[in-house]
């Protein structure tokens, strides 16, 4: 069994993004998806600080610090790009105009609840940014993350124990081991990496996992 | 003749009162009105409530205002950053009050203030701890939280160009909160890179019409004069 690298997960996510889609890639792991999108497909990237048609990072020395992404990194514009203010930017998100939003996560529950902004630690300074707006805004919210934590704890869970970012907002999860849909029944396996069997993936998943490729549970 | 151009930055900011609510533009440092904030520190107003996306970066701009202990409360979406040590220290010492608001709600609550909206139902944050105890309602099968506008006494924003009527254009993603804050405050004070002649901005390209703007300072020039 060979776990997918971060770049391979990104490539797997990119494969499912249709040509011409309006997409927001969250800070962290999801930003890697941009590198896996071929320009011919004209996927239009949105960054919530006010740009559609975001291009790749500029070459070193060419940075313009008035032209940044949500992670405050220097970016570029592609031909056809547009700038807008924050209320418009979040309006286009909340108003359901964006097709797909790809986010990282601490936990996703079997009914699609997302926790990705706060560990709940008592001494943590709360900081939400656009996470809650993104989670509920796009037509589809996809999660890109490791299947379990570094310590081996479940991230796909029956009920989130961390503070929620949004309720019932996640539709699909891409991990280093599998692609899983959130369905009315719960987690449903779409794809599994070679060499991993159903019993193993079910054990690494903290809620019932159905095999969406055929009917029945994986355990 | 209407002339909103102030010839000194100190004059532009002289009447900010203690206890004022000040909307401060910028997303990180893009669009941050550094010169106006420096002038506000010199002016001395204290006990301020600041509304801004972040809680300051490094030791300049908003961070410098916080460091000068002029801020009682900050309303923002993302205070914690790798370079927010000034805020982090004050917060941990209990010397500053924090209200965290989702970024889109922060923008929309100011938009509502500028547009005369009394309150609005918004889906963001429903079922999360940031919705607090506010009223919720199911509308058309979707759940919403009641959100109230955020009005400013003063807005301090950065734009690229202005004319003497206060019409503004911005530069790239430095636009961010500028147009929304300009409309949400009683007194909007803008620092710009360049003041152009009336008629020098294409009316099709004006982003913030001058009706929302009270004062404009050409920041580079003002600094040169002060030096």
Blueprint of the fold:
The complex is a heterodimer of chains A (219) and B (227).
Chain A: H1 6-15, E1 22-25, E2 44-47, E3 51-55, E4 76-83, H2 86-94, E5 100-103, E6 107-109, E7 114-115, H3 131-137, E8 140-144, E9 156-157, E10 170-174, E11 178-183, E12 186-192, H4 198-203, E13 209-211
Helix pairs in contact in A: 2-3
Chain B: H1 9-12, E1 21-24, H2 34-43, E2 48-51, H3 62-67, E3 71-76, H4 85-92, E4 97-100, H5 103-115, E5 120-122, E6 136-139, E7 142-147, E8 152-162, E9 168-169, H6 178-184, E10 185-195, E11 215-218, H7 219-226
Summarize the structure.
The complex is a heterodimer of chains A (219) and B (227). With 219 residues, chain A is α/β, with parallel strands linked by helices.
Give a structural overview.
Chain A is α/β, with parallel strands linked by helices and 219 residues long. Chain A has a single domain (6-211), classed as 3-Layer(aba) Sandwich (Glutaconate Coenzyme A-transferase). Chain A is 15% helix and 26% strand. In chain A, the strands form 2 sheets. A 10-stranded mixed β-sheet of chain A has the order 4-3-2-1-5-8-10-11-12-13. In chain A, helix 2 runs parallel beside helix 3. The mean pLDDT of chain A is 95. Chain B is an alpha/beta fold and 227 residues long. Chain B has one domain (9-117, 149-226): Glutaconate Coenzyme A-transferase. Helices cover 25% and strands 26% of the residues of chain B. Chain B has helices at 9-12, 34-43, 62-67, 85-92, 103-115, 178-184, 219-226, and strands at 21-24, 48-51, 71-76, 97-100, 120-122, 136-139, 142-147, 152-162, 168-169, 185-195, 215-218. In chain B, the strands form 2 sheets. In chain B, strands 1, 2, 3, 4, 8, 9, 10 and 11 form an 8-stranded mixed β-sheet that branches. In chain B, strand 1, helix 2 and strand 2 form a beta-alpha-beta unit. The longest helix of chain B has 13 residues, at 103-115. Classes of the chains: A alpha/beta (219), B alpha/beta (227).
